[in-house]
Amino acid sequence: MNLLRNRCIGGLLKAKWFPAAAQLLLLAVFILLVLGGLGVTTADPDLTRYLRDTNLANLIVWSYWWPVIIIAAVLFGRLWCTVCPMEFLTYWAGRIGLRRRVPGILKSGWVVTIFYTLVWIVGIQTLAINRIPHQMSLYMLLLILVAVDVSLIFERRAFCSYVCPVGHLLGLYALMSPFEWRADDGSVCQSCRTKDCVAKKNQYRLAGRSCTSNLYPASITDNRDCLLCTQCWKACPQENVRFGIRRPLADLLAGVDLRPAQAGFILVLSGFVVYEILSERPVSFEMMMWGPERLTQALGMTGAISNLVSATFLFVVVPALALLMVTTLARLACGQERVSFGQTAKTFTLLLLPTIAGAHILKSILRMSSRLPYWPGILADPKGIETAQGMAAGTLVLDTSATGALDPAVSFVAIALLLASLAATVLVFRRTVAGQKLSRGVQAVLCLGTLSYWTIFAVTILRWRFFP
């Protein structure tokens, strides 16, 4: 089924003003969010707990925009990238830039993996960009600066393809999407003489430009790298493009070959998502923080340095040790068969992806529903300082009846996501691991490692939602 044959959908995506008009509108929203957070800050940790949700800009970015694009990526692919204002900025910067060739270090993917890790460890856990509106605004301005600078130096859409951590994450989640953007008929592409979708002369056209993500529609095999920018649909004289529905998990079931940097990205992401879910329950949070707290106490660290070390321990060291354990056990269990570290690592991280996505979606739903009580008063105090002060002093109490009413539905969704992620993991395991013809010992190690990760979420969520 090709959705582009629908007159409304195909016409919208082929229009010259799309997605530029949507990107321009969202750029204006982006600027307003930056302005809404600038200057709103505090050194009081008690006030910070409330200010992150009472400031309108901060609430929109972290409690609604971020959850929505996570859910949308799993369901529809890199849909946010279609209308992202950063792509609009990088296009114009690229037109006047130096257009240097992208170096191998950027193409390897390790830069974006390191960037994403630094955002979490330094930005979120140390500088609190998700809790202090002023810090959030500075981070958003930094993203603009990096995006424009990279685009002024390198050719095509270098920032979106090789630097943007948001796009990289969405591309991995898009592997599970039931939608795909592909060439409709490969034979038409082979017989095409002009190749407008990849022609160099069309690279910097406003509408109908050739793919600036270095992709050829006829050779796209998975959803990781396509931004759904719709430019090839506008450029193709044969209209030989398909936006179609497929079975969910199609790319994972096909045994997509992760790049080493992507395996590293997923590994770090696994630590972040564990932290997000375990933080919802005080007991599990205390258990999780036992190791980092003992480490920082032994080293005599406090404040920002302590947060930095704790975050590195949780998001890098622990996941790396878990991977090392799995790969070591796999090598011991392989018998006479040789199992490479790289292949084991890529297979294991691929198997983790459905559970990570399920847990991330649950966290997104929880965040959106739990912030509903803040909306009635936030328009009267968009900066949120007075509201936060009132809540910290105990003179202002929010009405949480809406959140309470949604709790049963959220609990049902939690169970559904747990079961769906388990079923998806089993399907991917049967298709990818069995297809590699690994020994039973190696398969058992990978299975136990993956199920252990899923069990962390299952036990935490069940105890939290049903046995408090």
Task: List the topology elements.
Layout: H1 7-14, H2 20-37, H3 45-54, H4 56-76, H5 79-83, H6 85-96, H7 104-107, H8 110-124, H9 133-153, H10 158-162, H11 165-173, E1 179-183, H12 186-191, H13 231-235, E2 241-245, H14 250-253, H15 260-278, H16 282-298, H17 303-333, H18 341-370, H19 375-378, H20 385-393, H21 401-435, H22 440-466
Antiparallel strand pairs: 1-2
Lateral arrangement of strands in the main beta sheet = 1-2
Percent helix, as a range, is: 55-70%
> Regarding quaternary structure, how should these chains be classified?
single chain
- Rg for CA atoms: 23 Å
Quote the average pLDDT.
Answer: 94
Structural class, by secondary structure, is: mainly alpha
Q: What would the principal axes of the Cα set say about the shape?
A: globular
H/E series, N to C? Answer: HHHHHHHHHHHEHHEHHHHHHHHH
Number of strands: 2
Number of helices: 22
What distance separates the N and C termini? 46 Å
Strand content: under 5%
Query: How can the largest sheet be summarized?
Result: 2 strands, antiparallel
| Low-pLDDT residue spans | none
